[in-house]
Amino acid sequence: MPQINKFIVLAVAASGFLAGCHSNHTAYGLTTDGHVVSFNTDSPGTIDNAVSISGLNSGQGVARMVLDPISDQIYCITSDNFLCTLDPTSGAATLVSSTPFNLNGEGITLSNPVLGFDPTAQALRVIDSTFNLLVDPTSGAVLFAESKIAYAGGDTHPSSTTPSLAGMAYVPDKSSTTLYALDAATTSLVNIGEKNVSGTVSANGGQLHTIGSTNVSFSTPGGFAIDGSSGDAYAILQATGTSPVLYSVDLDTGAASSEGTLGTIDNNGSTLTFDSLVIAP
């Protein structure tokens, strides 16, 4: 082989290798049995720390958590629809408001909600099958109740499809309003609203636009997060009765690539179920 061709082959191989690389990040996962676990994204099988959530009222649990990429505060919502903050290293949760989410004085019952932080509006977005809410992170008050989610007309998936979101994440940039989500009903990566727009075609309109298949079968709940510095996207996904797996997600195609099975936190090796993922700032 001529020398120049060797260099070309090596250059192409190196560029292909680098294109598939991700930075190593510290990540926090919230489990459905009330723990926050930490691990590195390049070795998810090793749980570095696990703490029990504390500080809430009897019977309360944390249902979801999300990072505010501007302040680095982690917010959470409880199983009975209160807004809280969470320290992932100690497990301490603190209620932001003494009243749960409500609209016009009427209480709201959320069913398997997902949580995101809109860095442009500086507000939390809470979505389930009925509600699409913007919430003030300082008071826990519902600012706006927007359109419920549904697939947009002309999408790959018909508007009659009932979405079941496992997780959602904004691009963590103050100039961006782009919101991604993982739909277990179609096993797809979607945008909620069009990319980086405002008004009724934004996430406020609730329309889902399919990006592509993850090529992974999964159920709800799950975890999904986008790192603010690298743009790397990760998800914790699992089908019912299977072990949770950390995936890197291609935001252009939706394809999910396994980074490894999550470790366990007790001596008997019980399988964990996750309902949130945060990439540490």
Model regions low in confidence, pLDDT < 50 over at least 5 residues: 1-20
Cα shape: globular
Q: Indicate the CATH class.
A: Mainly Beta
Distance between the termini: 47 Å
| Total of DSSP H or I helical runs spanning 4+ residues | 1
Structural class call reads: mainly beta
CATH fold-level name: Tachylectin-2, Chain A
What Rg do the Cα atoms give? 19 Å
* Strand percent estimate: 35-45%
Order of helices and strands: HEEEEEEEEEEEEEEEEEEEEEEE
Q: In the CATH classification, which architecture applies?
A: 5 Propeller
Write out the CATH superfamily name.
Answer: Tachylectin 2
- Structurally, the number of domains stands at 1
Provide a compact summary of the structure:
This protein is mainly β. Helices cover 6% and strands 38% of the residues. The protein has a single domain (25-279), classed as Tachylectin-2, Chain A (5 Propeller).
Would you give an account of this structure?
The protein is mainly beta. The chain contains 1 helix and 23 strands. It has a single domain, classed as Tachylectin-2, Chain A (5 Propeller), CATH 2.115.10. A 5-stranded mixed sheet has the order 14-18-17-16-15, with no helix packed on it. It has a 4-stranded antiparallel sheet with strand order 3-2-1-23, with no helix packed on it. A hairpin with a 4-residue loop joins strand 11 (123-127) and strand 12. It is globular and about 45 Å long. Residues 1-20 have low confidence and may be disordered.
